[in-house]
Amino acid sequence: MKVLFLCTAHNSLSQRLYIALAKKHILSVELAISDTAIVDAVSLFRPDIVLCPFLTVAVPAEIYTKYLTLIVHPGPPDDAGPSSIDWLLIGDDGSEPSHEILLKDQSFSESGRNHWAVTVLQATKVLDAGPVWAFEQFPVQIDVPGVTKSSIYRGPVTRAALVAVSAALSRIQASIGASGSVQEKISSLLPPPSEFKQLSVTSRQPFAGGITRSRPLLKALDREFDIAKDTAKQISRKIRCADSQPGCLSSVLGPKLYLYGGIIDNQIQASSFAAGKIIACRNGAICVATSDAKGVWITHLRRMKRKQDKSMWPKVPAVSCLLSLDIWSMQELACDTSNDTKSHLSLISALHFQEIRVEFEAAGDKRLAYVYFDFYNGAMSTDQCSRLVGTFDHILEIENIHAIILMGGSNYFSNGIHLNVIEASADPALETWRNINQINNIVFYLLHELPRRGITSVAALRGNCAAGGVALAAACDRVIAGVHVVLNPSYRAIGLYGSEYHTLSYPGRCGTTKAASLSHSMLPLSACDAHSIGLVDHVLHASEGELDYAVRQHVATLSSDFATWKTNMDLSLAALQSAQTSELAEMAKDCWSHRAERFNIRRKAFVCKIKPVATPLRFAAHRRQRGDAVLLDQEEMDEFDLVDFYRVNARRQEAANVWRAALHYFMTHIRGVFDKALQNKVDSDIAVVEKQQSQMIFPCYYQS
């Protein structure tokens, strides 16, 4: 079938669905920028199905009344509203019918629901109330450390959506039969059998998570907490149910800020501290004392958008945000700024905030080091890269290390440099340069220091990765990935040439031609697709919950003599230096030449969530062709890399600004002249009328 994806953004869920469905169906993507654009896209593509995997606006009636339109709702049947996962994680179990009473009394469930689901339903006039074509449920524990709105969405919700959408499309095809289009038989498809709504696809059981409700948008005011009264669990839930958007708005730190993190720390003894006091600081995060003598870690902060602000503020580590506001000093924060990487060499606790940790495992007389670096949204700042380098140094002090396995984070392996920190810095170009050089230092260990010592490196992709994160993994001797992982190797969409020695690792792994394609193509790859071109060495067909165990089992089976892509590559110091120099020369253009315009614009749009003006043509197949011509995105054109192109553009812009200023002055001056002349004419006319009225016998008769 022809399926048009209609999305607010082509995010992790829609990309996973796209990759899964592309093997069976003809697909195209349209971003829901406006009703006009949506209607135009449908008329161009003429789909059998309009699929909305991530949509925050209503589908125009002109679409759902003519085309079978499926909504992927992150909740079970009869659950409705734009904040389904938010209500789940704040502790709503559906037992209270009124959301006003629920919020007023704070009568949330002690344990929350034990199941949640994803429903594929048909778009109708009433939101989230159309006929159900499929739903898939999954178990959930809302108070497990690390469970946030974003982790639920990227993990079990995405997996359930894959099952439910595939089932819905199969059921629709079965209803149509071997011939005929959906549109010709749409009337016969309504309504679908009631069992589609009553029984989950896989378990064939009714929804096990309790009563479902229609709930409204969970607003910032609804998430506010009272630091003097609320427990650590209550505060944690309110923060985690808003991660990563919109954040939990609170004035607990002074000014109103959006809070992220919400990790409860049971190890900290906070009984001697007043609730709201910052009692610890670690890795850029702060720990705030709560009324029940516990601590809650706040990892990131974002300032409120004011009326005079043109866009949202970047989301940055908590410490840097507080320092930038000049309301806290380093002494007041009581932060330990030393890079004590030795403390990372053992797992402190799952209930303690810790970005980097190392777990050792014996393999006969040799040892394996599993390095976890769970950075928020996979972004690696200069400071985080420095701490990871320090962790490598300390591992290398230990004898008999046979292999280092990079585990990354469970949600993301790595997405490369930290765009939010760069955007928030006083000098974004300099911070970009520092960040890219520090992540290069990590890759240097993988390409030189570890091979020199006979230590094998393995990248275990348990979550998605992009840009520099893909290059970081590619530099390892072996790359293994979960079957669910999505890779976005190209830097071009964000406007960067990229570094991390990718000009060595990509050709070494994939060959020159395919390496060039990886650098220029901005389409996501599945783990299996990456394996077919050599970017990934082995794909693990394990569920995400069993992936850690599967990684360790696979590493144990690898021979001690690892045959790798590095065998036929020149990875001498001279070759590494040459590659780095070449890459950094291009990165310098992205930082300080006229070409920096492309990175600055795209970085700000990404960080500040600026709405795009059009759907990228690489996704919108229905807009690619115009007559005999194939249209390209700007990033796909050769001029995208030319400094002169941006230099000429800058001169044109300067000239346009001069003309614009001159025109403004001219129009303002001319308008002033006309306004003065008009005022003189009005004054003259008024004087004439007044003179005429004074000569009348009964002037009141002539006045309105």
From TrEMBL:
This is Formyl transferase C-terminal domain-containing protein. GO terms for molecular function: catalytic activity. Signal peptide: none annotated. InterPro entries: ClpP/crotonase-like_dom_sf (IPR029045), Enoyl-CoA_hydra/iso (IPR001753), Formyl_trans_C (IPR005793), Formyl_transf_N_sf (IPR036477), Formyl_transferase-like_C_sf (IPR011034), HoxX-like (IPR047180). The lineage of its organism: Eukaryota, Fungi, Dikarya, Ascomycota, Pezizomycotina. It comes from Gomphillus americanus. Residues 223-307 form the Formyl transferase C-terminal domain.
